[in-house]
Amino acid sequence: MAVSTIQSDLEIYGNIQSQGEVVISGSIKGNVAAKAVDVKDSGMIAGNITSEEVLTEGKIKGKIKATSVNLKLTSSTDTQMVSNTLVVETGAALLGKFKIGA
């Protein structure tokens, strides 16, 4: 699987679509559709995410539709989420509406 990386000094205004994994250390103001999305602690997405797997240590504000979502300790998520599984580490900030196990 190909991995595309958005470095911490990069800001993207627009949508991203990938057949592989997208690793985000910078910021995206737009929607992200990929096989896997990994938001690092310096990363931010303001937009919707569609993915099989979402892992975040950073900030997400927007809808998430995924098979699996994992929110790490440093993450901050304001979302409407639909996912089969959700893992939330103690200390992760989470706000929104959730439909889990659908």
Summarize the structure.
The protein has one domain. It is 0% helix and 66% strand. It has strands spanning 3-6, 11-13, 16-17, 21-24, 27-29, 32-39, 44-46, 49-56, 59-61, 64-71, 76-88, 93-100.
Q: Supply the number of helical segments.
A: 0
Uncertain regions: pLDDT < 50 for 5+ in a row?
none
The ordered H/E elements are EEEEEEEEEEEE
Rg, Cα atoms, Å: 12 Å
Report the β-strand fraction as a percent range: over 45%
| Total count of domains | 1
Shape: globular
Structural class: mainly beta
**First CA to last CA: what distance?**
26 Å
Instruction: Indicate the mean pLDDT.
Output: 97
Number of strands: 12
Q: What percentage of residues falls in helices of 4 or more residues?
A: under 10%
Largest sheet: 12 strands, parallel
Protein model, in words:
- This protein has 102 residues and is an all-beta fold.
- It has one domain (3-100).
- The protein contains no helices and twelve strands.
- It has strands at 3-6, 11-13, 16-17, 21-24, 27-29, 32-39, 44-46, 49-56, 59-61, 64-71, 76-88, 93-100.
- Strands 1, 2, 3, 4, 5, 6, 7, 8, 9, 10, 11 and 12 form a twelve-stranded parallel sheet that branches.
- The protein is globular.
- The termini are far apart.
Top keywords for this entry?
66% strand; 12 strands; 102 residues; mainly beta
SSE order and pairing:
Elements (H helix, E strand, L loop, with lengths): L2 E4 L4 E3 L2 E2 L3 E4 L2 E3 L2 E8 L4 E3 L2 E8 L2 E3 L2 E8 L4 E13 L4 E8 L2
Parallel strand pairs: 1-4, 2-5, 3-6, 4-6, 5-7, 6-8, 7-9, 8-10, 9-11, 10-11, 11-12
